[in-house]
Amino acid sequence: MNDIAENSRVQFRILGSFECWDGNDRIRVGGPVHEKVLVTLLLEPHRVLPVFRLVEAAWDENAPATAAHQVRKAVAELRQRIPGGRDLIVTEGPGYRALTTPEQVDLSRFTEGLKQAREAAAAGQSTHAMTTLREALALWRGPLLAGTGGSVLSAASAALEERRLTAVEQLFDLRLANGESSEIIGELREFIDAHPLRETLRGQLMLALFRSGRQADALEEFAKVRDYLIDELGIGPGDALAELHNAVLRNSPELAAPQLPATEATFTPEGKPSTLPYDLRDFTGREAEVSELLGFVEEAPGSGPLIVAIDGMGGSGKTSLAVRAAHRLTEDYPDAQLYIDLRGFTPDGRPLSPGAAAESLLRMLGVPGDRIPDDAEGRIALWRRTMSTHRMILLLDNALDDAQVRPLLTSPTETLVLVTSRVPLMDLDAAHTVSLGVMPPGDSVALVEGVLGRTRAENEPEAVAQLTELCGHLPLALRIAAARLRKRPRWTVRYLVDRLRDDAHRLAELNSGERSVEVTLRLSYEGLAAETREAFRLLGQYPGSEINTYAAGALLGTGSREAEDVLEYLLDMHLLQQHETGRYAFHDLVRSFAQNLSRGGVLRPPEAGAEPRPTADGDDEIKRAVARLLDFALDATDAACDLLFPGRVRVGRSGPPTRSAELPPLETVEQARDWLEREQDSLLAAVSLAYRWEMDRHVGLLAANVVFPLDLRGRLEEFRELTRVAVAASRRLGDDALLRLSLSNLAVACWKLGRLTEGIAMSEEALALAIGLDDRRGEAKDTGVLGLLLSTLGRYDEALPRLRQSIEIKRQLGAERAEAESLTNLSSLYAEWGRYPEAVEAATRSVALSRSIGSVDKEVEGLTDLAVARIGLGEIAAASELLARARKLAGETMSPADLSLVLALSAEVADRLGESAQAEEWGESALGLGDLSGVPMREAAVGNIIGRFHTRNGRYAAAFELHARARDAASRIGYRVEEARALAGMADALERLGGQEEAAELRESARAAFDAMGIPTPRAV
């Protein structure tokens, strides 16, 4: 296909929310960055915009370091997603240029329309100027990207808004000059409400009020604007408005409405108005029908209107045929060519009445509003008188029945009337009927070639022929199939043919619904096949913001391919949105609609503080779907966590997993990490969904998996809340084993958040349950968690035997990952206690175990603790090597808080080795990774390490502040060792700042704290 012709099919709408269309097909170009980059290019077509300009448009002043790379990546993806994109967006020098035609971009058409209107007004063609302005202003749907584009695009949007308002004022001037007054008062007030400082609009309203016999109201309007300007700006109205006010006071005859020529019963339009839709460039076939129609028009006798009624099934090409004929006959009917959609078969169920149609047609001809009667009969009569004196084409599209059309016809007239309808218009007297069936095979192939491109079609002639057969030679089906292939360049025709061979899904592949009409939700739903309506209801139960094909397959009880077919169909029906390939989202209102449908719109009144729950009616169908979804989530998280956390044991599930739904590709660590990262919020929502449905076993088991990625990303409050829900569900279920697991995970969350007392209570309850259940693995974990909590509180004598017991049980069970974890905890205890050789031994064993099972996350933890022990022994070079390995392995395996500790230790070691610049960099990075206040243990430890670093380098005030914050964090949770270290650090810094007396008090408090824990008091920095 010719690239220029291909590009011309693509249309961009940027005046409002961004839209990209390929003919009748909506193109999803990507996310916010893609849209901002593309809109910025479209604002200045044919102009090279450097990459830095696009970066500014996408991120304002908050661009990430990778912004330029992301812009280039976005451009590459835009070129792939937009048909003909490589020729549309070209690289030139330091940037990119959009090679669009004026017809492709609504902003270009808007600008051209304003220009033509100015020229028409200057030439005295006021009616043409008003029509052109209306058409241009109709393109405006709102600010660029609906106001979400950032400061750069907002500035451009503000300039465009100014141009729009100027055009609005010009249109009101023309309408006032054309004799309108009372008709425009309401419209003027709406614009003034939105733009109260526009004095031109205020003056136009005063003039319209005055000419409507409302002099007092006009004067009151001036008083309003004067008071408003004084209150807002401290100034009075401008000279023009003041002079108008004086003229209104004098009742000046200069303000009277212009005297227009005496009106006649009919109206002669200026120029040759045409509102016909564009003629399809790739219109194919129907030669016989076109010849028949043109032959009838040429040979028809009589003085009445020539009426051609075209009927056929939906999708048979009735409108396309009528438009093609109308364009062919334009020269024979020069006065006007008018098109109107009578909305007879549209989902909103509100066909256009004859009176409303008559008014629309009169306005198309440029009839002034004050000449159009208020009553329907009067409008119809004026239309018929006007029609009787003109030689024009009237295309009445989508008629409901004869009764809707007949009032719009008159005789005698030289007007040609083309009517389309899904039903035969048998009672339309003297009409020539053209009934459309399916297309002949040759025409069907030609249509596919025209849409898809001859080269691709000729490469697979047999598959194209089969495609036309599977589409039933229906033009709409053929266009949808060919357009899907065109949008999916990697698909072969054979691939689509194979999909269409499945009779159960063929209609879903081909039926796009009423694509040209915005529909209400209910009637869109009612237009679906029964199985699709059921799927729509089930998909509405998905708890996340976006659903992928695999999760949809679980809900629907199908494979991912079948689910994709349903999702794509609902997308075509505008019941789903898509911001990224392979992922689908409900609009919030559509989701609510779907969920209410599944329960008949009835919810059981909730108890106080509880969420609404479904009634019993219809529960079974939905509950089975929810159970399938939760089984899928459990299977997928099991598979992902097994890859990411080697040595992890699947708790609570015996035997091989039974998978009830197709899983996404989870064969590599990267795939598992990406999937968990993307689906994390949906998984949290799935646990909540399970809790609402009282599927409590799913709650506990799924929560036990989801805590892993939450911990990895440092989302600790959500970690705790999730485990609290799991505990509540387990208690409700009465399952002690599941309760033990949930309590144990809650205790870990409490430790990470510094809620140590709560954590001890949870771990003690979990340990008691484990012993009662003779659950050795649970006993090992809960003993170790309890030891960890006690160690953090500085109760080392109590913590040490518990940690040793935990390690011994785990070793007996062969739980190597769990043993490695407890060994790092034991190493930390020894290091805090000052027993560094034993800390080295424990951490060394932990590293070896982690490495043997491929557990990178646990290896990094072990390396960190081993480095701490080496620092305690004064082996700084060895510690440096260990931390280098930890940083190299950390990657995606550490939470931000844990990584900040690694960087803080790296800064301390580099400083001791005399690497000042590197130490400064790591120190800043440690403090800059994020807010550590939600992780008080890390806040205290990192603050103390960097505080000591600042003291060594003479930055005593900064050191004191960090130590003070560390003390607050540690004392808040009872982290005694770091509280003592903070006190000692504050004393060191304060002493050098000259506060010897207070420093001595702080040092004594620190010494007492260390003595109470049995820890040697560290030397001053």
State the shape.
elongated
Largest sheet: 5 strands, parallel
Kindly provide the radius of gyration, computed on alpha-carbon positions and rounded to a whole number of angstroms.
37 Å
Which range does the strand content fall in?
A: 5-15%
Distance between the termini: 76 Å
Uncertain stretches of 5 or more adjacent residues: 1-7, 261-265, 511-521, 599-617
Label the structural class. Answer: alpha/beta
* Total beta strands: 16
Describe it:
The chain is α/β, with parallel strands linked by helices. Strand 15 (603-604) and strand 16 (613-614) form a beta hairpin. It is built from 46 helices and 16 strands. Helices cover 63% and strands 7% of the residues.
Concise summary:
The chain has 1021 residues and is of the alpha/beta class. It is built from 46 helices and 16 strands.
Features of the shown structure:
1021 residues, alpha/beta, three-stranded antiparallel β-sheet, 46 helices, 63% helix, elongated, disordered N terminus
